[in-house]
Design goal:
Blueprint: H1 4-8, H2 17-40, H3 43-73, H4 78-108, H5 115-135, H6 147-172, H7 176-210
């Protein structure tokens, strides 16, 4: 069987710079799908699924390293290079935040999560899909359209879902050793949502600069 890392990042000649951004964004989609599955399952399945997010986070860091090397060799202005690198790093940070959620879930052995958190995870998936579409336009950034506005709407919706989940957690009550991990998982999901908005904001800064 081909190792997971090799399937995601096979040996090949170096791809064009903007293709690397698309590859990273596609990895974000894969990670968001893994993240949703993780939140929707119980403890036993989570222990099986969680390592995927660690592998995906590792691949994202390697892609960021390759992007940094290509940016250093490019003729892009320093300001644009800094924004593009921040765009890549923030995608990697988003995947890392999902991995952190996985670690919290496995360590705490939590059971079923509030439905609003599962809904928030679906919004994270949708934002990741929008980021893939945006990554295809980085070399023609004026065509970015309303990417940032769409992600902003998803962010507001996701934050509402997290607040609703927290409300449900404290309304139903329970032992502190369960409430605190649920709170931490909810805040970790909120952090992931916030990072996705930052990704979109960076892309929008590139669009405004190029206008």
């Amino acid at each position: 069987m081909v190792p997971f890392f090799s399937r995601l990042l096979p040996h090949r000649s170096e791809r064009p710079l903007y293709d690397l951004f698309a590859e990273l964004a596609e990895l974000l989609v894969q990670a968001s799908d893994t993240h949703s599955k993780l939140l929707g399952h119980g403890y036993r399945e989570r222990t099986r699924i969680a390592p995927r997010l660690h592998e995906q986070s590792t691949v994202a860091e390697e892609l960021c390293r390759r992007i940094a090397e290509r940016l250093a060799q490019s003729l892009i202005t320093p300001y644009e290079a800094e924004l593009l690198y921040d765009f890549a790093l923030t995608i990697a940070d988003t995947i890392d935040a999902m991995e952190h959620t996985a670690e919290l879930l496995v360590a705490s052995r939590l059971g079923q999560l509030p439905t609003p958190l599962l809904d928030a995870a679906k919004g994270i998936e949708r934002a990741a899909e929008l980021t893939v579409a945006a990554s295809w336009k980085l070399d023609g950034i004026r065509e970015l359209g309303d990417y940032y506005e769409q992600v902003r709407r998803l962010t507001r919706q996701g934050e509402r879902m997290v607040r609703k989940a927290l409300g449900e957690i404290y309304t139903r009550g329970g032992a502190t050793q369960e409430l605190l991990p649920l709170h931490d998982v909810s805040e970790s999901v909120r952090h992931t949502i916030s990072l996705q908005e930052r990704v979109a904001r960076i892309a929008d800064l590139l669009r405004v600069k190029d206008a």
